[in-house]
Amino acid sequence: MKFFLAALLCAILPAVTMAAERPQGIAAAEAVAKAAFGTDCDMNGMPEVPMAEPDGEGYGHSVYSFSYKPDYDPNGPDVQVEVYQLFCGSGAYNIRHAFVLKKSDDESLKLATFATPDLDYSYADEEMSKLKADPKVRGFRATGLLVNATFDLEKRTITSHAAWRGIGDAWDSGEWVFRNGDFILTRFEVDPTYGDPDPAAESYVVYEVAK
To answer: How far is 88 from 98, CA to CA, in rounded Å?
Structure first.
């Protein structure tokens, strides 16, 4: 009986510890995202979203910290940054994330927004398996939610990959690099055709800046 109770406690305690590891600032960041996106960031109805495991699949929050030298004061102190990557919700094959920034030179939290191309497609058949011509960029729009996003702390780069349907034949992917306080679009690739699940079958890089 004693052995059973000890084993039961060992099974319970890690879950309690994980819940207690939510860092300071997470609740305030959640409030910013929920106020901005409403039901699009309902966090699957969880009363308290756990922190994501290092090798997890994105069903949790993450916090990243770094510093940078701002252009407006290159000789001044570094600005300390915390990036809150928030789990906003999930469907059958996509996970939605919001990003909230906390910077030492700003008292308030800031919701990160991301430039994305507004694209025009002209399909060659009813199955939408081929295009008549390359996609055309008609302009850019801003979004605050990214799909299946990851953050590379070393490169300070956010990457997203949104599957348009479950088998992953059609998709889009973007990269945004942190520069002087904001995330700047550096690359956007899309495969708007259906029928071939090969990721490189017919993809188009519609925007890319020199590195």
So the answer is: 6
Alpha-carbon 115 to chain mean position: 13
For 55-75, the pLDDT digits (tens) are 666 789 999 999 999 998 989
Distance, CA of 194 to CA of 123 (rounded, Å) = 10
Least confident of 5-14, 27-36, 113-122: 5-14
Name the residue among 143, 199, 209, 144 with its Cα closest to residue 172.
199
* CB neighbour list of residue 152: distance below 8 Å, 6 or more residues apart: 158, 159
Asked if residue 25 lies in contact with residue 82, where contact means CB atoms within 8 angstroms, the answer is yes
Q: Provide the token pair at 11.
A: 């099974």
Is the whole-model pTM more than 0.70? Answer: yes
> Rounded distance, CA 169 to CA 186, Å?
23
Q: What letter represents residue 137's amino acid?
A: V
Tokens of 187: 């690359």
Cβ–Cβ under 8 Å, residues 120 and 136: yes
pLDDT in tens, 190-204: 999 998 655 556 799
